[in-house]
Amino acid sequence: MTLRIYGNRALKTLSGKDTRPTQSMVREALFNMWQGAIAQCRWLDLCAGSGAMGAEALCRGAAFVVGIEQSSRAGSVIEQNWQQVAAEGQSFQLIRGDVIKKLPTLAGQQFNLIYFDPPYASELYQPVLDAIADHNVLSANGELAVEHHPKRSNFPTPAALEICRQKTYGNTALTFYQLKS
Question: Which DSSP letter does residue 21 get?
Answer without folding.
Answer: P
